[in-house]
Amino acid sequence: MGLQDYAGIIGLGEACRYLKKLGQSNIMKHEIKLNSMITESLLDNKKLSVIGPADAEKRSGIFSFNIEGMNPHDVARMLDSSKGIMIRSGMHCCHSWFNARGMRGSARASLYLYNTEKEADVFISEVKKIRMLAK
Question: How far apart are CA 57 and CA 40, in angstroms?
Protein backbone atom coordinates (compact mmCIF):
# COMPACT_ATOMS: atom_id res chain seq x y z
CA MET A 1 0.00 0.00 0.00
CA GLY A 2 1.69 3.18 1.16
CA LEU A 3 1.16 6.71 0.01
CA GLN A 4 0.80 7.78 -3.57
CA ASP A 5 3.62 9.86 -5.06
CA TYR A 6 1.73 13.15 -4.71
CA ALA A 7 4.83 15.26 -5.19
CA GLY A 8 5.65 13.39 -8.40
CA ILE A 9 2.08 13.74 -9.66
CA ILE A 10 2.08 17.49 -8.96
CA GLY A 11 5.55 17.87 -10.51
CA LEU A 12 4.52 16.01 -13.67
CA GLY A 13 1.44 18.22 -13.98
CA GLU A 14 3.56 21.38 -13.69
CA ALA A 15 6.07 20.06 -16.23
CA CYS A 16 3.23 19.36 -18.67
CA ARG A 17 1.81 22.86 -18.16
CA TYR A 18 5.27 24.38 -18.71
CA LEU A 19 5.84 22.48 -21.95
CA LYS A 20 2.33 23.33 -23.16
CA LYS A 21 2.98 27.01 -22.42
CA LEU A 22 6.23 26.92 -24.42
CA GLY A 23 4.54 25.06 -27.26
CA GLN A 24 5.80 21.88 -28.87
CA SER A 25 6.32 23.62 -32.21
CA ASN A 26 8.55 26.24 -30.55
CA ILE A 27 10.58 23.51 -28.86
CA MET A 28 10.98 21.71 -32.18
CA LYS A 29 12.01 24.93 -33.96
CA HIS A 30 14.68 25.51 -31.30
CA GLU A 31 16.02 21.95 -31.65
CA ILE A 32 16.17 22.25 -35.43
CA LYS A 33 17.85 25.66 -35.23
CA LEU A 34 20.64 24.28 -33.04
CA ASN A 35 20.97 21.13 -35.14
CA SER A 36 21.16 23.24 -38.32
CA MET A 37 23.93 25.36 -36.78
CA ILE A 38 25.91 22.26 -35.91
CA THR A 39 25.27 20.51 -39.22
CA GLU A 40 26.19 23.50 -41.37
CA SER A 41 29.36 24.11 -39.37
CA LEU A 42 30.63 20.53 -39.30
CA LEU A 43 29.71 19.10 -42.68
CA ASP A 44 32.39 21.16 -44.40
CA ASN A 45 34.89 18.34 -44.01
CA LYS A 46 34.91 14.82 -45.43
CA LYS A 47 36.30 13.37 -42.19
CA LEU A 48 32.92 13.81 -40.50
CA SER A 49 29.79 12.01 -41.62
CA VAL A 50 26.26 12.38 -40.32
CA ILE A 51 24.12 9.33 -39.64
CA GLY A 52 20.68 9.89 -41.09
CA PRO A 53 19.37 12.58 -43.43
CA ALA A 54 21.68 15.49 -44.22
CA ASP A 55 18.79 17.89 -43.60
CA ALA A 56 18.78 18.83 -39.91
CA GLU A 57 15.02 19.42 -40.05
CA LYS A 58 14.52 15.71 -40.64
CA ARG A 59 16.70 14.82 -37.62
CA SER A 60 15.04 17.21 -35.14
CA GLY A 61 17.25 17.38 -32.05
CA ILE A 62 19.53 14.45 -32.87
CA PHE A 63 23.01 14.86 -34.35
CA SER A 64 24.55 11.40 -34.87
CA PHE A 65 27.96 11.40 -36.46
CA ASN A 66 31.25 9.63 -37.00
CA ILE A 67 34.72 10.99 -37.49
CA GLU A 68 36.71 8.90 -39.96
CA GLY A 69 39.38 6.81 -38.27
CA MET A 70 38.08 7.46 -34.75
CA ASN A 71 36.12 5.28 -32.38
CA PRO A 72 32.84 7.00 -31.37
CA HIS A 73 33.53 6.16 -27.71
CA ASP A 74 36.86 8.02 -27.92
CA VAL A 75 35.11 11.04 -29.46
CA ALA A 76 32.60 11.04 -26.58
CA ARG A 77 35.38 10.79 -23.98
CA MET A 78 37.32 13.65 -25.61
CA LEU A 79 34.28 15.93 -25.59
CA ASP A 80 33.68 15.11 -21.93
CA SER A 81 37.33 15.63 -20.96
CA SER A 82 37.77 18.88 -22.86
CA LYS A 83 34.59 20.80 -22.04
CA GLY A 84 32.33 18.49 -20.06
CA ILE A 85 30.13 17.88 -23.11
CA MET A 86 28.12 14.73 -22.52
CA ILE A 87 26.98 12.78 -25.56
CA ARG A 88 26.07 9.16 -26.20
CA SER A 89 28.24 6.78 -28.17
CA GLY A 90 27.82 3.23 -29.40
CA MET A 91 25.14 1.38 -31.30
CA HIS A 92 22.21 3.02 -29.48
CA CYS A 93 20.18 -0.24 -29.27
CA CYS A 94 20.40 -0.61 -33.07
CA HIS A 95 23.14 -3.23 -33.26
CA SER A 96 21.72 -4.96 -36.33
CA TRP A 97 21.54 -1.66 -38.25
CA PHE A 98 25.15 -0.75 -37.46
CA ASN A 99 26.41 -4.31 -37.99
CA ALA A 100 24.72 -4.50 -41.41
CA ARG A 101 26.69 -1.39 -42.42
CA GLY A 102 29.97 -2.55 -40.89
CA MET A 103 29.97 0.34 -38.43
CA ARG A 104 31.14 0.34 -34.80
CA GLY A 105 28.39 2.75 -33.84
CA SER A 106 28.23 6.53 -33.75
CA ALA A 107 28.59 9.52 -31.50
CA ARG A 108 25.25 11.20 -30.79
CA ALA A 109 24.45 14.62 -29.43
CA SER A 110 20.87 15.18 -28.33
CA LEU A 111 19.58 18.76 -28.32
CA TYR A 112 16.55 20.08 -26.47
CA LEU A 113 14.99 23.29 -25.24
CA TYR A 114 17.53 23.71 -22.42
CA ASN A 115 20.50 23.81 -24.83
CA THR A 116 21.74 27.21 -25.99
CA GLU A 117 23.38 28.56 -29.12
CA LYS A 118 26.52 29.18 -27.06
CA GLU A 119 26.61 25.50 -26.09
CA ALA A 120 26.15 24.54 -29.75
CA ASP A 121 29.10 26.80 -30.65
CA VAL A 122 31.29 25.15 -28.00
CA PHE A 123 30.28 21.71 -29.30
CA ILE A 124 31.14 22.75 -32.87
CA SER A 125 34.53 24.11 -31.80
CA GLU A 126 35.44 20.99 -29.83
CA VAL A 127 34.35 18.58 -32.58
CA LYS A 128 36.46 20.55 -35.08
CA LYS A 129 39.47 20.18 -32.77
CA ILE A 130 38.87 16.44 -32.40
CA ARG A 131 38.37 16.08 -36.14
CA MET A 132 41.85 17.54 -36.68
CA LEU A 133 43.27 14.57 -34.72
CA ALA A 134 41.68 12.03 -37.10
CA LYS A 135 44.06 10.01 -39.23
Answer: 12
**CATH superfamily of this structure's domain 23-133:** Aspartate Aminotransferase, domain 1 (3.90.1150.10)
- pLDDT tens digit sequence for 17-46: 999 999 999 999 999 999 999 999 998 777
- Domain residue extents for the chain: 23-133
Question: 94 catalytic, yes or no?
Answer: no
CB contact set of 35 (below 8 Å; sequence gap of 6+)? 56, 59, 60, 61, 62, 63, 111
Q: Is the pLDDT of residue 122 over 90?
A: yes
Catalytic residue (choose from 84, 93, 96, 118): 93
